[in-house]
UniProtKB/TrEMBL annotation:
InterPro entries: DUF4179 (IPR025436), DUF5643 (IPR040680). Residues 50-139 form the DUF4179 domain. Residues 247-359 form the DUF5643 domain. Keywords: Membrane, Transmembrane, Transmembrane helix. The lineage of its organism: Bacteria, Bacillati, Bacillota, Bacilli, Bacillales. The chain crosses the membrane at residues 51-71. It comes from Brevibacillus brevis (strain 47 / JCM 6285 / NBRC 100599). This is DUF4179 domain-containing protein.
Length: 368
């Protein structure tokens, strides 16, 4: 089989009944899948060139900070009236890594804004740990109320009103081969802060598809286009690396069973993001399987899968995957390969895990 490259856009998080995929995003993803070549039965998710956020945002658009099971409508309305104290990241339920950043003071306050007529876009806070660059965008406009945006043609959720977003460093966006940017996604900051959006950009690591080195600080140019507005909004956003508390391990652990070989070659952990490099080698009987890895901490909690890149050569799949870091300081990770049944699925069920392939990676004493 000829070598093929593909992006793996995995978004697994605790979704609530109010968190739904945008019909536009679903339609574009379905169209993308339909257009993919019949190279194998492995489904490949590719970035949409004209809308770089769409593929990655697939199953996270509309995610809420306070889930419906944790907050009543009356309480949510009351919270809206209270000025935000501390970091908004500390309230995020769906991403434990970002919540830890807010609670541990790893976010940076910024004050970058741009206005057009009566509309204002303001970046209030950022998080950067060397892998993820995240920023909070507050939108103020007379046609925006409680997270619902009037485009002039229809009233939609604020997240659905975003037509396009570009993120570039030194003038290079994700489509530039020399760019540090690999892709991004965005979602609502939640019911208690409905006019805020959380934007995430995943940066390439120097040893994976990038010749550049990620600096400890940089400025990014962000351009946002909203439906019904003829003016694009351009912002210059500073990012400063917030932590050097990084664990880097190369366990090179291998497990094999039933025609499948699974290897974990590298694990990098910050308080915000956990990065996992692994590969899956298949024999002829299993070469049509789509396999990914789920990551669990020492408390049995599955870490939220964020994003990743993958490469397929012959019957070997190699992945560079990122997860939201676990709360606290885990003593070890359990990594479990599973067979993908539905790329849109919210959770992985027990019958999907492949027996005999799980790998345990102990973390050093300083992480306890």
């Amino acid at each position: 089989m000829d070598q093929s490259k593909f992006d793996v856009e995995l978004q697994e998080y605790k979704r609530t009944k109010d968190s739904t995929m945008s019909p536009l995003v679903r339609a574009r993803l379905d169209a993308t899948y339909a257009a993919l070549p019949e190279m194998s039965r492995e489904r490949k998710v590719q970035r949409l060139r004209k809308a770089p956020y769409v593929a990655a945002a697939a199953v996270i658009l509309g995610a809420t900070v306070f889930t419906s099971g944790f907050i009543s409508p009356v309480m949510a309305q009351s919270i809206k009236q209270i000025p935000l104290v501390g970091s908004l990241f500390s309230f995020i339920e769906a991403d434990l890594g970002l919540r830890a950043a807010g609670e541990q003071g790893l976010s940076s306050k910024v004050n970058r804004s741009i206005s057009h007529h009566d509309m204002k876009l303001e970046v209030t806070e950022t998080v950067f740990d060397g892998t993820r660059a995240v920023y909070l965008l507050n939108v103020t406009a007379p046609n925006l109320k409680d997270g619902m945006f009037d485009t002039g043609a229809e009233v939609v959720k604020l997240s659905d009103a975003i037509e396009n977003v570009t993120f570039s460093i030194d003038g290079k966006g994700q489509d530039d081969p020399d760019s540090l940017v690999t892709g991004g996604f965005f979602y609502s900051a939640g019911e208690s802060h409905p006019n805020f959006l959380v934007f995430e950009e995943i940066l390439k690591t120097p040893d994976h598809n990038s010749t550049g080195k990620i600096p400890d600080s940089f400025h990014a140019e962000v351009v946002v286009k909203l439906a019904g507005i003829d003016q694009a909004f351009k912002l210059d956003i500073p990012f400063q690396k917030a932590t050097n508390n990084t664990i880097q391990l190369k366990p090179n652990a291998i497990q094999s069973n039933d025609g499948i070989s699974f290897e974990v070659s590298e694990v990098n952990v910050t308080p915000v993001t956990t990065r996992l490099l692994y590969s899956v080698k298949l024999d002829g009987a299993t070469s049509d399987k789509s396999i990914r890895a789920a990551l669990f901490d020492d408390q049995g909690r599955q870490l939220t899968s964020l994003h990743g890149e993958g490469e397929r050569k012959d019957n070997t799949l190699t992945f560079d995957a990122r997860y939201a870091s676990a709360q606290g300081q885990p003593k070890y990770f359990i990594i479990k390969p599973f067979v993908v049944k539905d790329h849109f699925a919210e959770t992985v069920t027990d019958d999907q895990f492949i027996k005999g392939l799980e790998i345990k990676v102990d973390l050093p004493e300083k992480n306890k």
